[in-house]
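Board notes, transcribed. Complex of a protein with fe (ii) ion.
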Amino acid sequence: MEQQATAERPLADGRAVTSSAGGRLRSREDEPPVRVAAAGDVHCRVDHRDAIVASFAALRDQADLLLLAGDLTTTGEPEEGAVLAEACRDLGMPVFAVLGNHDWHANRRDELVEAIEVGGDVVVLDRAHRTCETTGVEVGVVGVKGFVGGFPGSHLPDFGEPLLREVYAETSRDVEALERGLREIALCPVRIVLLHYAPTDATLAGEAPGIQAFLGTDRLAAPIAEHEPTLVLHGHAHAGTFAAQIGTVPVRNVSIHVLGRDFHVFELPDHAAAAIH
Ligand SMILES: [Fe+2]
Ligand SMILES: [Fe+2]
């Protein structure tokens, strides 16, 4: 957590800033962009408190919204969540987060979420969505952790032992929540999907091929392809690749291990003229 945030404008493919989704969205270049800071795999620990608080404090005034793509903590202990809450206190921008697999390790999910959300500075989105208005633009965020499941050639089947089929069903619940959330925020000019697990194997390039089924699944891609949000963010794949697309939708792996810095700041357009999705 040494380097400061840097801004990218436009997105690598230019689509989210200046062009349209299927010709249906128009940016208003006279409006200020929404600065969305993002990071995944922050892995807060009690003995790193000072560095983490300093890192987040440096983001003040640099963004309008902060999104955290899971693995907020190292082992999911509430004390680690309290470090994140402290780092986000009075940051001056809404903070939305999803949990990651590390955040489940201690199996103290409810206590952890309570510790993170204490004070009201951070909202954990767990198969949920929220909207906020920033720089005059309504931004909708759907937050789903996602889960394992694999990609073409490595798909986990919905077959066999009940335990294996329950893993498949858990991912199905995330896919359904993602679909539901995207429908709920359909009217927001800026719509962002926040995940921990990857919805495409294109951002896994660099990871060992044998573990791809554990890093995400393209089952999460179907609602994204259908609803065409402005931006999709995920983490989890520490050795993966930053940029990919699902159709025309930009997907970014914002794991800090991929970024090589503490945060990435996206500048998104005011899609005030967006059509209904
Ligand atoms: Fe991680
Ligand atoms: Fe992870």
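The two ends are 38 Å apart (CA to CA). The helical segments are 15-18, 49-57, 78-88, 101-104, 109-117, 162-184, 221-227, 256-259.
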